[in-house]
Amino acid sequence: MSLTDLTLAEARKKLRAREVSARELTEAHLRAIEALQPKLNAFITLTPELALAQAKAADERLARGEALPLDGLPLAIKDLFCTEGVRTTAASRMLENFIPPYESTVTAKLKAAGAVFLGKTNLDEFAMGSSNITSAFGPAVSPWQRPDDPRPLTPGGSSGGSAAAVAARLALGATGTDTGGSIRQPAAFCGIAGIKPTYGRCSRYGIVAFASSLDQAGPMARTVEDCAILLEVMAGFDPKDSTSAEEPVPPFAEALKRSVRGLRIGIPKEYRVEGMPPEILALWEKGAAWLETAGAEIREVSLPHTPHALPTYYIVAPAECSSNLARYDGVRYGLRVPAEDLTEMYEKTRAAGFGAEVKRRILIGTYVLSAGYYDAYYLRAQKVRSLILRDFTEAFREVDALLTPTAPSAAFPLGEKMDDPVTMYLNDVFTVPASLAGLPALSVPCGTDAQGLPLGLQVIGRPFDEEGIIAVGRALEESAGFAARPALAAQE
Predict the structure, then answer these.
(1) Is 242 designated active site?
(2) What pLDDT band is residue 174 in, cutting at 50, 70 and 90?
(3) Is the pLDDT of residue 73 over 60?
(4) What's the pLDDT tens digit per position in 114-127?
(5) What is the average pLDDT across 465-475?
(6) SS3 33
């Protein structure tokens, strides 16, 4: 097996057994990036010198028998996480030359655990999008291809660069952020696993903000086990984040050993949406059958306010985006377009710095927060959000976890839905409800469509029950035996 084909767990064993060095592992991934980056555009900024320096330090610790939890493991970092001394752009012209003087808490934890940082991955601008086409640095491209269609496919969004890098074997794992599905949907499109933890489980400090009541960092990797290993390091209370939860961090990887026997798994009837492709419905039914065979009890449940989740999300998220992005005014940091007076400088800076989708969401958000419409839109959306959370709370009195599809389709060609924002927003129909409720959710690759493209199933759990969704996800993973490999993958 080549070094880039190792899972994160396998690579960690080999490093600790001294069967391979951190430098060899890092160099193999850097060569893979060099070969495939021109085709995939998965990275915005590469950091080979930093990676090799971190690999050298890891090898020295491993030689002394002082291995850290992630020592020598090459990771990709979504370019939404501030990294001290390394350019952080949020895929926007507004921050094109921004070099943070501080480190996000999540990346600081990964560094302290010995991880090797290969570079910063591409994303939708300010994490706003479901296809990675809104990046100011050009779209990331999925490593998957349709057999009879040469058009490049979307890797999903907004964490598309991270998903593409992991699927193409350019990194053993990656960080992502999920506001309405931005870890889970690209994970499904690229045939990898991805966890959106409970809101507050991972610190938001140092992550460029989109919608503060929804944004949550999480891991992306090729297996559920690898995600569990990364989450254990990324999670934890942070006094620098007022929304960080003071919850103990359990050994998430231990949950992989749990049986699902006796668990009650809910199938929400409202997730059977009109026009759902038959192959996604069939995979969903197959997933329920796998869990039933493993000893779980399958029950239908109702989440009656599910149809209102998308419109609620697209009021709440733009409102918070409008507020958060007000700071990019050309005065303190980021892009500044010179002008004759302050007002003109604001206007020119924001016109040049933000792309079309970001402007669209700022305008929507400003509108719903305006004096005449606050009660009619934003306040009402917050009330519906409470009802969506109540639906989940009621359901979890009957079941231990929920099983749904992750996305309503397989990956589609880049730009195919670009002219219709509403159609693009519908990509999040299965992921948004759990985000609004702040619940942990995991996407697991469980099959392929008729053209060989990956499809994922989503497991949603109770608040702070990441262990539960990891156990169910592992059972699905073992039953599915997903082994498909993208056309564009490292051959190291």
Answers:
(1) no
(2) very high
(3) yes
(4) 999 999 999 999 99
(5) 98
(6) helix
Six token digits for residue 219: 């891991």
Lookup result for tokens 């004096």: 371
Q: Do 218 and 231 touch, CB atoms closer than 8 A?
A: yes
pTM greater than 0.90: yes
Place of tokens 């934003």: 378
Structure tokens belonging to residue 80: 């939404």
State the Cα–Cα distance between residues 188 and 204, nearest whole angstrom. 24
Integer Cα distance of 439 and 130 in angstroms: 20
Nearest-5° Cα angle at 344, 339 to 349: 80
Tell which CATH architecture fits domain 11-492: Alpha-Beta Complex (3.90)
Determine the Cα angle at 221 with ends 215 and 224, to 5°: 95
Q: Is 158 a catalytic residue?
A: yes
Contacts of 402 (CB under 8 A, 6+ apart): 265, 266, 267, 268, 301, 395, 459, 460, 461
Active-site option among 78, 120, 196, 417:
78
Active-site residue identified among 21, 104, 158, 409: 158
In 3D, which of 46, 113, 112 has the Cα closest to residue 77?
Answer: 46
Find the catalytic residue in 92, 104, 182, 244.
Answer: 182
